[in-house]
Amino acid sequence: MSDVDVRAGQDADAATNDRRLIVYAVSRTDRRIDDFVMHALAALRPHGERLVVIVPAGTPEIEIERLRSLVDDVFSVPASGFDPAGYALAVDAEADIERYDEVVLTGDAWFGPVSDFGPVLERMAGEATTVWAMVENSGSGPETFPDAGVTPPSLPWAWTALRRDAFASGAWRRYWDGRGRGAGAAEETAFLRHFAPGDASVSFAFPADRYPSTNPALFTPSLLLDDGCPFVLRTVFLQYPPYLDRFAVIGRELLQHVDELGFPLALVWQNLARTVQPKALYAIAGMLEVLPDTDVAYDRASPFRIAAIVHVSDLDSVQDLFSRLGYIPSPYHLYVTTTDGKRAEKLQRMLERRDDPQLASFDVRVTPANRGRDMSDLFVGCRDVLLSGNFDLIVKVHARRTRDKTVNVRRYFRRYQYDNLLHSPGYVANLLALFQKEPGLGVVFPPMMHIGYSMMGHAWGGLREPAEDLGRSLGITVPFDAVSPLAPFGGMWIGRPEALLPLMGKRWMFRDYGKRTGQTYRDLARVQERLVAYAGAELGYHARTVLTREHASISHTILESKIDNLFSTTRGWPVEQIALMQRAGDAGHMGTVALARMYIRVNHRRLSRLTMPLFEAALRTVVILKYMRRGVGILTSVMRGRAPESRR
Predict the structure, then answer these.
(1) Can you give the C-alpha Rg of the chain in angstroms?
(2) Per-residue pLDDT tens for 554-592?
(3) SS3 per-residue string spanning 300-328
(4) Contact, 516 vs 309, CB < 8 A?
């Protein structure tokens, strides 16, 4: 969206205050300022005589120039993120602050305007008050959950407006002279309380006593929108998902409400994808789609250019997969990779005999055998396809055996992956329609498989640190989820090739994945699999998961049973039960040492900080002894097996 487009449609006759100074703080820039900021500034422009933007240190000059096209001045502060003291610096830099009737302190803490600012500003202009804020928070701020790896970032103030009296009385200067270190949005409440006890009066456009919550911006945002509040606070989407669950705050419903009011959701998704842990956003925004088998949404007049990239090591299942690719509702190009020349010949003959009207072309490629399997074949063997610019979507699937699973698990895994991506012609059409509807949708895949697998709770699989290291080297700065990543476990997805570009920032080689005896990068294929959604998020693309109605029924019922039993020995709300278990820490194999460590962590937190190194050393010793005992046992068995041969 261009700056000109953002300006377009703004009501030039909106209620304004010609002597209003608006100071807007930008909390995060990195390599670019998100488009929702530009949209907000364009909407604020008619409502102030002067519009100033505060940016943190290190903001790229090209982004500052973008801002200057919309505002009167850009004020850089020394802090690398948001610091409330920036408001004082920007206001004090004004030569004659008392010439303004009103000074507004705000920033990128909200998405909006969802409705016009004019009616609210006009209503509050009639209020005899010294200071007024948009929404009152008469309670405490939201809880933090450091044990869960969730600490909401410091955001700018939502909206605090000061009249002339606040400056003439000296109250403004007294606050900043006596101020300690601030706490971001929480300090906005402290600032308002600074004025309340004295002669000054404080008003709210939307007082808390009108709503069934002390913090309506967090707990009842839809009611605020119904009453004409012009924005939604971003903090709703930055909370710990079980905490929002406790109060039945449904992010998906809120986003639908915002969409119905006409605000462009693409601006919301772009920012949330880059700033919120992907798995947390997935839960908060309800980003699972249960799709029907009857086409109800696909626009066949705007087909995608599609490439299907298929890795094959199991010829027994490939016929089913090729048949399912025929469900794609537009012509597609097929790229098949395999590590065996004879298998490649069979695949070539198989494809030559196929009667698939949608198959525009096919290319069978033989790749070196390595531990990367389908991932190395994608990022190395088909790098040219991903970077060609010829395709809008990539269907990435495979037909390979999982040898370390039982026959039931192997069968259900394949069914789960194939059904939830390529179930029927209507189902695939509805899946592709998601990409038509949302230009910011980067990748779609089935939810984490939990039937026959024990991944839940530790799906990083010990690879979070390697994933973070690789992410940093590729410029991926999206916050990583603490417990499990949002990822296409199983290695099958449909997505835009441009959403994979951060993972293509390095020119990978087959040797990077290693042969059976070693590899250059530790578990590179598994790390890349866990970074797919994070790579897209870095560029502002969000991810969704999809299920058929049948698999939704199967998955939800068994998941409900597992959670019901898991919480059966603890009390309170799930957020409290989870907090207790996380505070206790890793249970390990529930040995005496692990149980003692958990008891101390829960009941004697100060003591735990002193004893944890001892417990960790004890646990390592136990593990080493177990491996030594196992090694001695194996060696003894081998020697006993060879003894008769030596005697002979």
Answers:
(1) 29
(2) 999 999 999 999 889 888 988 888 887 777 777 766 666
(3) CCCCCCEEEEEEECCHHHHHHHHHHHCCC
(4) no
List, in order, residues 6 or more apart from 472 with CB less than 8 Å away.
Answer: none
Q: Is 149 left (phi over 0), alpha (psi -120 to 50) or beta?
A: left
- Prediction pTM value: 0.88
Neighbours of 604 (CB within 10 A): 12
Mean pLDDT of 183-207: 80
Give Cα separations from 244 to 135, 238, 269, 371 (angstroms): 19, 10, 19, 41
The closest of 46, 55, 52 to 7, measured between CA atoms, is: 46
550, two tokens: 């049948």
| Contact criterion met (CB below 8 Å) for 135 and 88 | no
Measured in whole angstroms, the distance separating CA 159 from the mean position of its chain's CA atoms is 26
CA distance 329 to 303: 8
Paired sense of beta strands 110-111 and 232-233, if any = antiparallel
Report whether the peptide linkage leading into residue 113 is cis, meaning its omega lies within 30 degrees of zero.
yes
CB 161 within 8 A of CB 104: yes
Instruction: Dig out the tokens for 115 from the structure.
Output: 């409705």
3 state DSSP class of 206? strand
Sign of torsion over alpha carbons 533, 534, 539, 544? positive
**CA 626 → CA 597, 623, 632, 643, distances in Å?**
19, 5, 10, 26
Q: What is the pLDDT of residues 118-163, one digit of tens each?
A: 999 999 999 999 999 999 998 877 778 887 778 777 899 999 999 9
Return the percent helix, strand and coil in the chain, to nearest 5.
Answer: 50, 15, 40
Q: What are phi and psi of 114, to 5 degrees?
A: -80, -30
Q: Give the list of residues 6+ apart from residue 84 with CB closer than 8 angstroms, or none.
A: 157, 182, 184, 187, 188, 191
Is residue 225 within 8 A of residue 115, CB to CB? The reply is yes
Instruction: Give all strands (DSSP E) within 130-287, no chain letters.
Output: 131-135, 159-163, 202-206, 232-233
Q: Which two tokens stand for residue 520?
A: 């250059």
Q: In this structure, what token pair is assigned to residue 255?
A: 């986003």
- The tally of CA atoms less than 13 A away on the side-chain side of residue 534 is 27
Do residues 109 and 194 touch, judged by C-beta distance below 8 A? no
> By C-alpha distance, which of 218, 25, 190 is closest to 106?
25
| Separation of alpha carbons 200 and 286, rounded Å | 44
